[in-house]
Amino acid sequence: MNSYMILFIIAAYFAVLLLIAWITGRNNSNEAFFLGNRKSPWYIVSIGMVGTSLSGVTFVSVPGMVRAIDMTYMQTVLGFFVGYIIIAKVLLPLYYKLQLTSIYSYLDDRIGRRGYKTGASFFLLSKIVGAAARLYLVVLILQTYVFNAWNIPFAVTAILSILLVWLYTFRSGIKTIIWTDTLQALCLVAMLIVIIWQVKDKMGLDFGGMAQTLVESPHFRIFEFGDWHSTQNFFKQFFSGIFITIVMTGLDQDMMQKNLSCKSLKDAQKNMYTYGFAFTPVNFLFLALGVLLLTLAAQQNIQLPTLNDDILPMFCTSGILGGSILIFFTIGIIAAAFSSADSALTALTTSFCVDILGVQREEAKRAKRTRLKVHVMISVLFVLIILAFKAVNNRSVIDAIYMIASYTYGPLLGLFVFGLFTKRKPRDKYVPYICIASPLICLATDFLVKQYAGYTFGYEMLMVNGGITFAGLWLSAIENGNLKIEN
């Protein structure tokens, strides 16, 4: 496939995104940037959130994970759906009642000023490291399989990637990305279906034969009820999926900012139900693709790469599935990567402006200038973190950083659960120390339990982390033997 054709398709793709940004960016006030003037159609938000949830790393990782854990990831996905219902019923009514711009503002009145700043800081740290790690791995894949053909340096690829995201988000933020993310979500799902179809044709199967191949595969194992020590145990996966969704969606400014841009609470709830329902079959398709790739490799004696994350890229770039598949793969991974990166950049800008700088108290023109400066600053920080990851040049280190970042959502879970389900008032001065100590205790616990008991914590560590934070807040509410009750 002509490399210039791929470059043309990428350029055309971003031209469409910039056109959407120009059309939607005529009102570039802070209200439009932060909340889309609270006029976003719920069904458009719902489609876009599918793309936001499925990062570029998900696009390549989920099919590859089938080799290690079969399709048991679906147990977690089923838990996700329950989590979305809880968000719609519990968190969204609270956010709309308080008319929040940043969801962490809730912590200011309920927990205290330090608790508020701590919660926002944990989000900022988690999001920027996690989003940069995701984008780094995608930029690395694009660099390896696409841009090396033109001898373009990695730094240039990284800078151009962030610059393009900045260009179509800097004017109107959420008002723009609910539309660009919708386009990208549709492109992502379309490319996924095209790739599955190409694999089916390569195997010489019709639709019925493909379904039969999936069901008869030893990797078509969804449920694991037997081994409690296994990280794939159904109860661990399912309940972890619920809490992962509550934290990574319901307590995440990135995901909730789109919901808060809807016209009403009822619309936001409809968005959450629809998005949660659609997210399940999309993940199933990713896993089904993984099963088909493994079956094709076994049938044709194709040597698979060592890393699971390299399985899909190898098939799409080696010519096994035909030359045109590289175009579909490139569009799919760009759509997945940038629908995640643009909303992360917007959410980080919003949180820093509102939670750290307090721009809502500034005069409108000055607040807008502040927001534009912060947007540039965070974009530059994205580039620097990506280049730092490249300098380390070690995927295991990146995975470790990403894992540590995921630990930092535990304190957010503890803070919100404490605020929502108790009337206690913790001593605000201790809250930052409790939230810092909790993930550190979890890391030490994970290491010691694995060393001496042979048990490996999975996603359930998130619940443990939140529980430790909750316990610390409860204890901090005890003063002279009495519990401090919120008035």
From TrEMBL:
InterPro entries: Na/Glc_symporter_sf (IPR038377), Na/solute_symporter (IPR001734), Sodium:Solute_Symporter_SSF (IPR051163). Coiled coil: none annotated. Gene3D superfamilies: Sodium/glucose cotransporter. It is a multi-pass membrane protein. GO terms for cellular component: plasma membrane. The keyword Transmembrane applies. CDD domains: SLC5sbd_NIS-like (cd10326). Its main location: membrane. It is found in: Cell membrane. GO terms for biological process: sodium ion transport. Keywords: Cell membrane, Ion transport, Membrane, Sodium, Sodium transport, Transmembrane, Transmembrane helix, Transport. The chain crosses the membrane at residues 6-23, 43-66, 78-98, 119-146, 152-170, 182-199, 234-251, 272-299, 311-338, 372-389, 401-421, 430-449, 461-478. PANTHER family: INTEGRAL MEMBRANE TRANSPORT PROTEIN, SODIUM-COUPLED MONOCARBOXYLATE TRANSPORTER. Belongs to the sodium:solute symporter (SSF) (TC 2.A.21) family. This is Na+/solute symporter. It comes from Parabacteroides distasonis (strain ATCC 8503 / DSM 20701 / CIP 104284 / JCM 5825 / NCTC 11152).
